[in-house]
Each structure stands twice: as structure tokens, then as C-alpha cells.
Automatic annotation (TrEMBL):
The protein, known as: Cyclic nucleotide-binding domain-containing protein
GO molecular function: cAMP binding
InterPro entries: cNMP-bd_dom (IPR000595), cNMP-bd_dom_sf (IPR018490), POPDC1-3 (IPR006916), POPDC1-3_dom (IPR055272), RmlC-like_jellyroll (IPR014710), TerB-like (IPR029024)
GO cellular component, one term: bicellular tight junction
Annotated source species: Symbiodinium natans
Pfam (any one): POPDC1-3
Length: 342
């Protein structure tokens, strides 16, 4: 297909060079008619050869359908439409209606070409917004310009919370949604039990980013948070977006499909994180049980080390849990007696 397209393009090029030579001949003819005489001369010479424009135009269409880049495809389509207009106007009786439709198609292509060129113009973002875009929007099909449009519509801003502060509480009015950029947050359910810890990256939305089944006016009515999110790191930094304008901006920009992909990815990230959190909780329970009698023998240490290695429990988690239980590393690993000294 590609080889045939290249061969057709060469044939079209030779035809265009021949046409250009004839047009120059008309344009340089000395006559008081000027431009209109040149047009008349061109019509006289090419009316009998107007089929060349059909061949050239179809060769260009053949090239266009092999393009993966939308800008190249539309540019070639404009060129092919120009050839079609030339063919229609070079008939003994010019075909104005098909030529007018060709001009209309060209204007449509040019309109979208300007949009494509505008989207490809370099856009600068500050480091925080760039990090949010690369983690939560770009992988799902949002362009930088679409991301900035959403930020503007939803009053996006970067906020901070200290350790122990609630980012949002269960029962409070649900007006904002947050994306965790730095730190760690805890999801707490209605019974005040910890459900899962949220980390930046996949699964980093603190709440539901987008519901494809919700009507456009869903967020116009008052809504309340069903769970709480609490910062458990030294500092949490997050992007805050107003939910109602966010939802409307996504629908108005035909980004519902991309937003749905982002929501599904976020849910998978939380599911994966919940499994990891379950393993961490299991290890904590095993460690607590092992030290309950005030001593740890070599066999218990070996079993705990195997579990920690197999399930990827960070050493920092191990150290933190030991400290919570009032133990040190020296106490935990059996020494002379294997008994924790009070």
C-alpha cells in the first residue's frame, strides 16, 4: 500500500510540474487582459486535460488515508479538495455546485487544522501542575490545553495539610475533590475505621473524580462526603478542584471517555493499594503477636523476615511498628538470651 502510494505521488508530481509550466506560459503572455486573460488561457489549455486533476487528487487522497498524523491527513485532504475544485471548474460548463461543496469541505478542514496547530503550541506549567498532569491526566488522553481548561473552569489550586489534619470529613458538604501530590492520606469509613492509605500516583484521587452515569446537573444539589480523608504524613500537598464545574467542563469538552478511563485507573490503583495495605496490616498483627510475651526467638524472627521479604514490606514500616510496640531493633533480634530487657 505504501509503495503504491509513493509511486502514485511521483506520477502526480510530474503532472503538477507539467501543469505549472503551462500556467507560467499563460501568465507571461503579453496581453492587456492581465489576470483574467491568464485564467482564460489556463482554461483553454487545461479543459481537455482536466482529468489530470482527478488523478492527482485521488493520488493525494491515497496518501492521506495512509497518514497516522491527523494534521497531515487534513492538510492532504485540503490539497485533494483543491484538485477536485479545479476539475469541476475546468469543465466546458463549470460545475459550480460541486466546487462550492469542495470549498465548504476545505473550510471545515482548515478550521480543525487551526485547532490542531493551537494544541501543538508549547504550553508551560509550573512543576506542581505538570506533575498532576503527567500522573492523573496525560495517561488517559487529556491534552495539556484541555487540562489547563479544566483547571481554570474548576478553580484548581494547590493546597497543603499538616499531619493529623482532615482534608475532608464525612458528613461535610462535598464541594471539592482532591488529588494527592505529596505525602500520604488515610481513608476512614463511617465507623471511624481505617480502610486504606492513599499515596500519590495511580489511585491518588481523594474521592470520585468522575461518574459517567451522573447527569449534568447531579452536582447542583447539595452532596455530603461519605468517608473522611486524613493526612498522616508530615505534610500533604494536593490539587483541589471544584466538583460541579469540573463535571460540567468534562461533559462540555467531550472528555467523558477520557475521564472514565481516569476514574477506572484510579479505582484499580486503590484496589492494588488495599491489597498492599492488607499485607502491611497482617504483618503488623504478626509482629504484635510475636512480641506479646516479651521475647522473640530465632524461629519467630525467621518467619517474620520471610513474610516481610515475600510481600515487600518496607523496612521503615517494620521499624515504625517496633517503635509503636516499645521495641528497638536490638531488642527484636535475639542476642545472648533473646529476651527483651525492660
Amino acid at each position: 500500500m505504501v509503495t503504491a502510494s509513493i509511486r502514485a505521488w511521483k506520477i502526480a508530481g510530474r503532472s503538477l510540474r507539467h501543469a505549472a509550466g503551462n500556467l507560467r506560459g499563460c501568465a507571461t503572455t503579453q496581453s492587456p487582459g492581465g489576470f483574467f486573460h491568464a485564467v482564460s488561457c489556463f482554461r483553454e489549455r487545461w479543459t481537455s486535460r482536466c482529468h489530470y486533476f482527478v488523478h492527482v487528487g485521488n493520488c493525494i487522497v491515497l496518501l492521506a488515508i495512509n497518514q497516522k498524523d491527523m494534521l497531515h491527513l487534513r492538510t492532504l485532504s485540503v490539497t485533494a479538495s483543491c484538485c477536485g475544485i479545479a476539475y469541476n471548474l475546468l469543465q466546458p460548463t463549470p460545475l459550480w455546485a460541486p466546487a462550492a461543496w469542495g470549498a465548504f469541505f476545505i473550510s471545515c478542514h482548515l478550521y480543525y487544522i487551526t485547532h490542531l496547530l493551537r494544541d501543538r503550541v508549547g504550553i508551560t506549567m509550573d512543576p506542581d501542575h505538570e506533575a498532576v498532569y503527567e500522573r492523573a491526566f496525560m495517561p488517559h488522553g487529556f491534552t495539556p490545553r484541555q487540562f489547563l481548561k479544566i483547571l481554570q473552569a474548576a478553580s484548581g489550586r494547590i493546597e497543603e495539610a499538616s499531619c493529623g489534619a482532615y482534608i475532608c470529613r464525612q458528613g461535610e458538604a462535598k464541594k471539592w475533590i482532591h488529588y494527592l501530590l505529596e505525602g500520604e492520606a488515610m481513608l476512614i469509613d463511617k465507623s471511624e475505621d481505617k480502610v486504606v492509605n492513599i499515596l500519590p500516583g495511580k489511585g491518588g484521587w481523594l474521592g470520585e473524580f468522575f461518574d459517567p452515569a451522573a447527569p449534568e446537573d447531579h452536582w447542583d444539589a447539595p452532596r455530603a462526603h461519605q468517608v473522611s480523608f486524613k493526612c498522616i504524613a508530615h505534610r500533604c500537598r494536593f490539587l483541589t478542584l471544584e466538583i460541579s464545574p469540573l463535571h460540567k467542563a468534562i461533559l462540555a469538552s467531550d472528555l467523558a471517555e477520557a475521564a472514565t478511563r481516569a476514574e477506572v485507573s484510579d479505582l484499580w490503583g486503590k484496589l492494588h493499594g488495599s491489597h498492599h495495605e492488607h499485607r502491611r496490616n497482617t504483618y503488623s498483627a504478626m509482629l504484635e503477636l510475636a512480641v506479646a510475651d516479651g521475647k522473640v526467638d530465632a524461629k519467630e524472627v525467621e518467619l517474620l523476615e520471610k513474610w516481610k521479604t515475600r510481600h515487600g514490606i518496607p523496612e521503615d514500616d517494620h521499624q515504625v511498628k517496633l517503635a509503636e510496640l516499645g521495641w528497638t531493633t536490638e531488642d527484636f533480634f535475639p542476642g545472648f538470651s533473646g529476651v527483651k530487657i525492660e
